[in-house]
Amino acid sequence: MKxxxxxxxxxxxxxxxxxxxxxxxxxQKNENAKEPPIQSVTTAKVERVKVENALALTGSxxxxxxxxxxxxVSTGGRVSSILVQNGDPVAAGRALVTLEQQDFxxxxxxxxxDLKKAESGLxxxxxxxxxxxELYQQGAISPKEYEAVEAALQVAEATVSSAAAGVxxxxxxxxxxxxxxxxxxxxxxxxxxxxxxxxxxxxxLMTVQDISSVYVVVNTPQKDLAIIxxxxxxxxxxxxxxxxxxTGTVEVINPVANQGARVFETKIKVDNPEQLLKPGMFAKIGxxxxxxxxxxxxxxxxxxxxxxxYFVFVPxxxxxxxxxxxxxxxxxxxxxxKKGLTEGQRIVVTNVNKLKDQDLVTVAK
Length: 365
Description:
4-stranded antiparallel sheet
């Protein structure tokens, strides 16, 4: 009987021992899980920096001067040759496209023949009038006959005038068979092929854009309309050239708001002597509205954001506190702090995306 009891006891003890071991292991894991990791971070001071008092806007670039090149011939003509490619620099008066001239020469010859015939008829009508005038004064012809001769002269004069206009038009078409650039600039948007029939109704063949200076076209919100004025200095940047700044001046402010967005189109003329800025580029521009001012600023890397709100971590002892702030303009690698921090206060600038409020940290020296 005793031996049977012992046999039952052995498995029971084994179960208890295993349970204690596993329970201890689980407890140990839970204890370890409760210990938060300690992040190593570095900090920086909230400092004041001097920045231009400027209105930050974004917009797109367009040429200050642009000429749409189209055919001017009234009768239409076939393209013989195209003398430029997109991006080619051209001077004012440079030939861009030539049309086949044979048809224009033929028309001019016919119009000149018509004019010669009309002029001959006019000479005859003038001689007739002179002769009939003498007869009329002698009473040899009736007033009606004399008036008919006068009317014939008027018709002859009109015929000559019409024929002369035809010659002028044909001559102009012949001249316009060579299409010239009215301005100096760069060729863009070429839309013509050799052998194509073109006329004054054909639309744009290409454009020539003078980009020695360009407009940055921005939309000014109503709230800023009182501070942006003609003549204010500005600086523009584009992603293609990094921090390179292009200087300009506010030149055009549309006095009527866009009906949809309620903004006012503003054009800022920017110097572009190297022709680096191209129409269609996206640009950021700062319009200087006053003297330079001191603002609080922190490194951009110190920021975290959530649902449109911005936060930084402030060290407090061996922990960090998440603090909401209000930011302003971007200043190179810094960002302006409008509310939430004070000058000299230290903030965390590394590992901010790994931190949570009240996390344990060690501040690296």
